[in-house]
């Protein structure tokens, strides 16, 4: 199959003929090519989205009409979900079973169905007489042309997180997937057309970071939504400042998982390893910092090592595989570099800490002990299957250590004490706090960060609200 850009309802190559190679990171083989969109493609995509927005071919449809088209898209994706899962697994190196049955394709379909139904439940917040002789109406309107820029760790899911709320709000959307994982996103254009989405409303540009920079600098774009690294978030904010675009940033994380002495240690260890190693730890909400009460430290370390042994590395298409490859050689080397530097700084490797001898870009699930709170491995996002373990004496100390990072995306607490759980859910400075679990998300609940993990929410009705602007209409009576 030939993968092409999707501009104004048609598939096309990049105007300048540029391409990107797609590598299967589980084998290291080049498996495909896609267009690398350049300046002309960016201009055409934005101009078609602008035209579609201005003539109201999408925003003036009734919510019911918009919902029906988005729901049809979800049905069409579901009918081809095995194909989506296979391509996604080839592009990312993650286990096919995880992609086809878990957090990737089925969850993305559910998200799109949620956004379809939420389209019909948007309301202006007030209509009343606040000034004598005048009636005020508050209208929620789509903000315009919205660019969505996605990362490589959940490529299709992130594509839906970008286009779902934008289209539900009535915006016209341009999606740029990550350069390494573009193929499932590129399938969406033809599916949207088959579902009845008018031409120009959704445009999809595979491309490198330069394509992203061209999109974010363009004056006809009203909003940029990025899921990606803090570095890219800062670059996009600076670029967006020149044309005063609104920005919506879902960035990195460094989630603490706190285990108290009243917790079920075995359950906590199992949840911690799932939270830390699923998707090879390439998850912004991954449990990366395990904080354990000192009285149960030894027992918990044993349970964590035992649970880590269950994480079998293997080919993405083997049924027993729990951990696939990293996304790329460079990500594998980045992870290895973090672990080497941690060891030089005094950390102890309890399990893992090596590159398995096999083709592809794998890294063994790794537990590190004897790490200092201010060390690189505790403070910086690694984005690989590496967890640190630290002990604490008091609740206050646990809270201070948990909050002492620049990130604020996700966190969790394992305890049977309801008062402690409520205190921590209030005082942890993270966008999500799980009690006695780590990782699950739902379409209806908002996902997004505090501090340098960004701002704005993905998922839920709050995500749609981020793509809406409020207009005040004041009527003289
Ligand atoms: P990245 O920042 O390198 O790239 C993300 C996207 O931004 C890609 O499509 C890339 O081409 C584009 N891009 C890069 N530079 C750009 C620029 N100057 N202008 C415009 N676009 C540009 O991130 P990544 O390595 O693909 O993904 C991993 C990161 O994503 C991690 O930091 C992770 O924590 C984060 N992430 C966050 C969430 C969340 O919900 N908060 C979810 C998943 C991933």
UniProtKB/TrEMBL annotation:
GO terms for molecular function: aminobutyraldehyde dehydrogenase (NAD+) activity. It holds the Pfam family Aldedh. It is an enzyme of class 1 (oxidoreductase). Residues 20-473 form the Aldehyde dehydrogenase domain. The keyword Oxidoreductase applies. Coiled coil: none annotated. Keywords: Oxidoreductase. The active site is at residue 250. It comes from the Bacteria. Its EC number is 1.2.1.19. Belongs to the aldehyde dehydrogenase family. PANTHER family: ALDEHYDE DEHYDROGENASE-RELATED. This is Aminobutyraldehyde dehydrogenase. It comes from Vibrio tritonius. The lineage of its organism: Bacteria, Pseudomonadati, Pseudomonadota, Gammaproteobacteria, Vibrionales.
């Amino acid at each position: 199959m030939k993968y092409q850009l999707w501009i104004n309802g048609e598939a096309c190559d990049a105007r300048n003929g540029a391409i990107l190679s797609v590598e299967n990171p589980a084998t290291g083989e080049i498996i495909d090519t896609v267009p690398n969109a350049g300046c002309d493609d960016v201009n055409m995509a934005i101009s078609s989205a602008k035209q579609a927005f201005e003539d109201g071919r999408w925003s003036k449809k009734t919510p019911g009409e918009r919902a029906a088209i988005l729901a049809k898209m979800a049905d069409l994706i579901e009918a081809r979900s095995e194909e989506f899962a296979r391509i996604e697994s080839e592009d990312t190196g993650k286990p096919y079973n995880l992609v086809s049955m878990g957090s990737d394709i089925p969850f993305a379909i559910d998200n799109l169905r949620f956004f379809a139904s939420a389209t019909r439940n948007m309301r202006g917040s007030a209509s009343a007489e606040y000034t004598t002789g005048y009636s005020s109406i508050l209208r929620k309107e789509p903000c315009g042309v919205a660019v969505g820029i996605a990362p490589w760790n959940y490529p299709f899911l992130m594509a839906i997180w970008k286009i779902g709320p934008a289209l539900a709000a009535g915006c016209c959307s341009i999606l740029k997937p990550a350069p390494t994982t573009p193929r499932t996103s590129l399938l969406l254009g033809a599916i949207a057309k088959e579902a009845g989405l008018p031409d120009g409303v959704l445009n999809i540009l595979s491309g490198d970071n330069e394509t992203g920079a061209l999109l974010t600098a363009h004056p006809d774009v009203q909003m940029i939504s990025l899921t990606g690294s803090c570095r890219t978030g800062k670059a996009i904010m600076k670029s967006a400042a020149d044309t005063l675009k609104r920005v919506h940033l879902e960035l990195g994380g460094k989630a603490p998982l706190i285990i108290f002495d009243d917790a079920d240690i075995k359950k906590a260890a199992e949840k911690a390893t799932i939270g830390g190693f699923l998707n090879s730890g390439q998850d912004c909400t991954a449990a990366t910092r395990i904080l354990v009460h000192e009285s149960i430290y030894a027992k918990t370390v044993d349970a964590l090592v035992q649970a880590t042994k269950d994480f079998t590395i293997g080919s993405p298409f083997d049924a027993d595989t729990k951990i696939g490859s990293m996304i790329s050689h460079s990500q594998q080397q980045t992870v290895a570099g973090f672990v080497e530097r941690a060891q030089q700084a005094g950390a102890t490797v309890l399990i893992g800490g090596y590159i398995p001898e096999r083709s592809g870009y794998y890294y063994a699930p790794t537990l590190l002990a004897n790490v200092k709170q201010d060390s690189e491995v505790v403070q910086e996002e690694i984005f690989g299957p590496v967890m640190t373990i630290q002990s604490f004496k008091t609740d206050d100390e646990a809270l201070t250590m948990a909050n002492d990072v620049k990130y604020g995306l996700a966190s969790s607490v394992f305890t049977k004490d309801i008062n402690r759980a409520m205190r921590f859910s209030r005082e942890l400075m993270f966008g999500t706090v799980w009690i006695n679990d780590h990782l699950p998300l739902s379409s209806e609940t908002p996902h997004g960060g505090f501090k340098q993990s960004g701002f704005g929410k993905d998922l839920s009705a709050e995500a749609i609200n981020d793509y809406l602007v409020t207009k005040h209409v004041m009527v003289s009576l």
